[in-house]
Design goal:
single chain, about 90 residues, mainly alpha, 3 helices, translation regulation, Polyadenylate-binding protein-interacting protein 2B, ubl conjugation, mRNA regulatory element binding translation repressor activity, PAIP2-like
Length: about 90
């Protein structure tokens, strides 16, 4: 009775190999699913450094005006001087 498993050794080996292949297939599918999910999610450590560099460059390009250009802007304005005053949240 001790060696009865040897009688079906080939069947046993085939069954174990099929189980291992199935487990390997499931592991690969699961990993692929996780990889796809990672690409869809916003991950700061991966996605922010480049964006932060771009923002920093944009911020460095900004400057505060000294106010002397405001008259020039007003003289070139195409705004309607007779328009109603804009009040946020009020529909006309």
């Amino acid at each position: 009775a001790e060696y009865m498993w040897m009688e079906n050794e080939e069947d046993f080996n085939r069954q174990v190999e099929e189980e291992l292949q199935e487990q390997d297939f499931l592991d690969r599918c699961f990993q692929e699913m996780l990889d796809e999910e990672d690409q869809e999610w916003f991950i700061p450590s991966r996605d922010l450094p480049q964006a932060m560099g771009q923002l920093q460059q944009q911020l460095n390009g900004l400057s505060v005006g000294d106010g002397h250009d405001s008259e020039d802007i007003l003289s070139k304005s195409n705004l309607n001087p007779d328009a109603k005053e804009f009040i946020p949240g009020v529909k006309y």
